[in-house]
Amino acid sequence: xxxxxxxxxxxxxxxxxxxxxxxxxxxxxxxxxxxxxxxxxxxxxxxxxxxxxxxxxxxxxxxxxxxxxxxxxxxxxxxxxxxxxxxxxxxxxxxxxxxxxxxxxxxxxxxxxxxxxxxxxxxxxxxxxxxxxxxxxxxxxxxxxxxxxxxxxxxxxxxxxxxxxxxxxxxxxxxxxxxxxxxxxxxxxxxxxxxxxxxxxxxxxxxxxxxxxxxxxxxxxxxxxxxxxxxxxxxxxxxxxxxxxxxxxxxxxxxxxxxxxxxxxxxxxxxxxxxxxxxxxxxxxxxxxxxxxxxxxxxxxxxxxxxxxxxxxxxxxxxx
Length: 320
Prior knowledge:
Elements: H1 21-25, H2 40-57, E1 61-65, H3 71-78, E2 82-87, H4 90-94, H5 98-101, E3 104-106, E4 119-123, H6 131-144, E5 147-151, H7 168-176, E6 180-182, E7 196-200, H8 205-295, H9 298-307, H10 309-319
Parallel strand pairs: 1-2, 1-4, 2-3, 4-5
Antiparallel strand pairs: 5-7, 6-7
């Protein structure tokens, strides 16, 4: 999964020095485990990929171009294939697992590939090359095999070494120029969503159109069906939301009316209590007025004298 630079390449090219241990320490940022065969997570992933690749292609001799530390090569060997790998990074090859290190070699992808292979795999490699070097790599791979398992990420521009990111259609067109076309009956999404198995085929225009239309039409129908289902779901959710909101409004109005009735009842009770207090105050004032009048009367004074003889005696003596 590495590349090289040579005389005449632009500044936007990578070299072997860009793929040291630091690079692999950060490789696969979605995983917390080191990118090595000793990692249970990476080992399980590549074992699954290798088993599927051998099952789908039946390939016995496989060359992995840009093999990095050789995890796929090692998994292919365990799956029964005679697999080898090349990579520009001496660091990557030297840090490979001892069981597979002898099957790996340091080489650039712009150099011709020796020998003939049942399958050449090139996984997340060409986005690291300049456009010219990527075209030369495709030429070399197509000259060495009848089938190429290819994957190049169509995004992830934040990765510094991704100097040649292209959409899958561009890569497919480059392979088609060399007589290699997508196997539309093969699903490689277990590797990456954009992985493709290109195979050499002598196809005329009619065959090419038929193959790709047969591949594209079912997906188009599925997309339209899912969009229709999504729209129906959106409308259902909107209706439920509106109904719930309406129900909430009715409940809120009921609560407001109930609170208003309670408030009116409380206000009436307060008014009745205030009226009763005023009535009591009126009766009390009248009683106090009547009492004051009684105290000023002769009868009250006579009663006082009779009930208080000592007071009467004090008044008689005082007069003397």
